[in-house]
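User: For my dataset I need records formatted as: sequence, then structure tokens, nothing else. Please produce one.
Assistant:
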Amino acid sequence: MIKKHICFVVMALLGLGGCQTYSTNQTHFIMITKSLGTKQCSGVNADDQLQQLKHELEQANIKVFAAEIGTDQMSHIALCGADDSKIAIFKIRQESVISAENMGYKLKITDE
């Protein structure tokens, strides 16, 4: 009787394992960056710059899945008019990278 139950459970698990499907249509995403061009003491709104760059990507038929402001992780002199280190970071499809690079974007270097 126990063998019958064990056999039933094993067959059920094997049957369910066969139901698992794998998508061959996986979309790979990549992060790209570009300087916002904002300067210290300038009063330019970084969020407005981010939206402008996002709009330019979309006009070039590059779908943006996420957008955020980051920093370039470099030291900058504290001086009005000097670079403030803010960068735009966008998540796009991997197949759009060449088009984005032609627009001046760079691949984001991960911290991993």
